[in-house]
Amino acid sequence: MTSPDRLVQDHVQDYRPGGRPLTGRAVLAILVAFFGVIFTMNVFLLNVASSTFRGLEVDSTYRASQEFNGTLAESAAQRARGWSVDVRVARRDDGMVAAAFAVVDKDGAPLAGLAGTARLAAPADKSLDAAGAIVETGLGHYEAVFAGDPGPGRWTLVTELARDGEVLFRSRNRILVD
Length: 178
Fold this sequence. Notes:
By secondary structure, the chain is an alpha+beta fold. The chain has two domains: about 15-50; about 80-175, Sandwich (Immunoglobulin-like), CATH 2.60.40. About 35% of the residues lie in helices and about 35% in strands. The chain has a seven-stranded antiparallel beta sheet. A hairpin with an 8-residue loop joins strand 3 (about 115-120) and strand 4 (about 130-140). The longest helix has 28 residues, at about 25-50. It is elongated and about 100 Å long. The termini are far apart. The mean pLDDT is about 90.
């Protein structure tokens, strides 16, 4: 059987001193260096994040909240119209990206006399958005050619169709551009 004094003696005998002792000054230097690196990285990442922030979706959230009931009413009116809008987005032979729309009413009759705008919205950077005017190409058929060169990838297609200046149809759809 081993006595407690023997255990303490064995433990002390295992220790082989070497190197410099860990002093209070060394511990302070380690702590200052550790938190200095964390602070420096936080400042760096904060600057990177704030310099790449592209802006807000709306200029005034208060104004947008006040207009929300109007947006709900417009949405209900759009549903009541029962329009069906089929859209195809593709890159044309000339390299431009275009959206082709086929618009029919709730009875399946093609709708004529509409105009509007279409916008390919980039997921994180408004400066990459590409817009185009929707023009009638035939009875119930419309096309929008997007300015600039929206690259391949996932985009949000924001569509507004109007007649006599009144927007009658709005949609936002996630699409893939080749």
